[in-house]
Design brief:
The chain has 242 residues and is mainly beta. The chain has one domain: Pectate Lyase C-like. It is built from two helices and ten strands; from the N terminus they run ββββββββββαα.
Length: 242
């Protein structure tokens, strides 16, 4: 029997009665787990340089103390639950086919990380720095990512759901086709970012740092469009208003 929680119920088809509106967001591939991860444990010193974790289920573990540097770590087909990585320096980490639940990565440094088919659920990502990371087939759900940094990151087939991204930094990142569903994006920085096909409907956009060039091709609701125009200094009035 799989150690992972059952998948979420499949929603109604896009465009079908009672289903969500059609979206340009590509289908996201879930993590691939050839076998159920086995319970495991880390060395008392936590992660070390070039360490590889594969096929493990780790629960309530301190994987790396704040400030600990572990370059070139690989995590594959793992299930991490309440694992502590706050403040860790994991330059070039590769995480593949893995689910993280209620893990703490606050202020962790994932510079140039390679994240493929990774699910992040209810994780603490405050101040996380994943600058220049490659993030593909990823789901961030219910994560607290206030002040997180994704500068010059490359996203492909990714979705943020119910996430706090207040003041997050996406400057220079490629967010083409990324979906932000019911997220707090207030004062987020999209300077120089590519948002073609990004779906921002249902998210808070007050104070976002983005101009017409960045928002070209982004998907928003009419009310969001009015709010963005006001942020650009455009006075929006209905015809009957004085």
């Amino acid at each position: 029997m799989s150690a992972f929680p059952p998948p979420e119920p499949r929603p109604a088809a896009a465009g079908a009665p009672g289903g969500p509106p059609k979206s340009r967001t590509p289908r996201i591939a879930p993590p691939r787990w050839p076998v159920a991860p086995a319970p495991g444990a880390l060395p008392s010193v936590g992660l070390t340089e070039r360490e590889r974790l594969a096929g493990l289920r780790l629960t309530d573990a301190l994987a790396a103390a704040p400030g600990r540097r572990a370059v070139g770590v690989t995590i594959e087909a793992c299930h991490l639950i309440r694992v502590g990585l706050a403040g860790a320096i994991l330059t070039g980490v590769r995480v593949e086919d893995t689910r993280l639940e209620t893990c703490d990565l606050a202020n962790a440094d994932l510079y140039k990380a390679d994240l493929l088919r990774v699910e992040w659920r209810d994780c603490r990502l405050t101040g996380l720095a994943a600058n220049e990371a490659r993030i593909e087939h990823a789901v961030f759900a219910g994560c607290h990512a206030h002040l997180a940094q994704f500068r010059f990151a490359r996203f492909k087939h990714a979705r943020f759901v119910d996430c706090n991204l207040h003041e997050a930094d996406f400057a220079g990142s490629d967010l083409s086709g990324v979906a932000f569903a019911n997220c707090d994006l207030r004062s987020a920085d999209f300077s120089g970012a590519t948002l073609t096909g990004a779906d921002l409907r249902g998210s808070k956009l007050e104070g976002v740092k983005a101009g017409a060039a960045e928002l070209r091709g982004a998907i928003v609701t009419p009310l969001q469009a009015v709010e963005l125009l006001r942020q650009f200094g455009v006075v929006v009035r209905w015809e009957e208003e004085d």
